[in-house]
Amino acid sequence: MLKIGIAEDDPKIAELLKSALEENDYQVLTVANGIDALDLFLSQSFNLLIIDVMMPGLNGMQLCKHIREKAMNVPILMLTALGTVDDKVTGLEAGADDYLVKPFHLKEFLARVAALLRRQSGADVKTGHKLHFEDLVLDTYSKEVSRGGKPIELSAKEFVLLELFMRNPNRLLSRQFIAEQAWNISFETGTNVIDVYINFLRKKIEKDFERKLIHTKINMGYILK
């Protein structure tokens, strides 16, 4: 059974999310403040963490940063009432893999959870567990990435994006396609979240390398070539 941790200081919301997840056969542990959440999340193994931004002790952004500093690659879904693009970017930069703005429908919440867990789990045996493009290597079993033999640390969402590109080399991927495949949601034309993640990924796989791999087609999308 997959195990999910929830850090949410509103008891009604925490219980609602817990009940919805347990009805879908997930094991769920909840905690109501950032300090206790950090202790719990570092002491046990989880398949997914759900973190509210506004919490006592440590807020969600701080908690997320602490988790990533410990090199934990567990997927993180951030929950918040703060819905501006800058707020979303701040959450992503803190290490979150997805961002859901309150109020939200439980159906969308469960879809986001399932998408993160599905992407994190894994490997597609039919296509092999190692993907290669030029000097870039992605291992879907170990979740390791390297370029020119140099290890590259990616967040769960960055890994998903890179895998998507490497399974579709030399193919132009629209933002709509990326949103559906990597987030399992419809693309919102007013958001730049996908562009932000692409920039995160570019910085990691292209830093210190002369040859650039991910290219932008203005108003069309992105291509790995």
TrEMBL record:
<keyword id="KW-0597">Phosphoprotein</keyword>
<feature type="domain" description="OmpR/PhoB-type">
    <location>
        <begin position="128"/>
        <end position="225"/>
    </location>
</feature>
<dbReference type="Pfam" id="PF00486">
    <property type="entry name" value="Trans_reg_C"/>
</dbReference>
<keyword id="KW-0238">DNA-binding</keyword>
<dbReference type="InterPro" id="IPR001789">
    <property type="entry name" value="Sig_transdc_resp-reg_receiver"/>
</dbReference>
<dbReference type="InterPro" id="IPR011006">
    <property type="entry name" value="CheY-like_superfamily"/>
</dbReference>
<dbReference type="InterPro" id="IPR036388">
    <property type="entry name" value="WH-like_DNA-bd_sf"/>
</dbReference>
<keyword id="KW-0902">Two-component regulatory system</keyword>
<dbReference type="InterPro" id="IPR039420">
    <property type="entry name" value="WalR-like"/>
</dbReference>
<feature type="DNA-binding region" description="OmpR/PhoB-type">
    <location>
        <begin position="128"/>
        <end position="225"/>
    </location>
</feature>
<feature type="domain" description="Response regulatory">
    <location>
        <begin position="3"/>
        <end position="117"/>
    </location>
</feature>
<protein>
    <submittedName>
        <fullName>Response regulator transcription factor</fullName>
    </submittedName>
</protein>
<keyword id="KW-0805">Transcription regulation</keyword>
<keyword id="KW-0804">Transcription</keyword>
<feature type="modified residue" description="4-aspartylphosphate">
    <location>
        <position position="52"/>
    </location>
</feature>
<dbReference type="InterPro" id="IPR001867">
    <property type="entry name" value="OmpR/PhoB-type_DNA-bd"/>
</dbReference>
<dbReference type="Pfam" id="PF00072">
    <property type="entry name" value="Response_reg"/>
</dbReference>
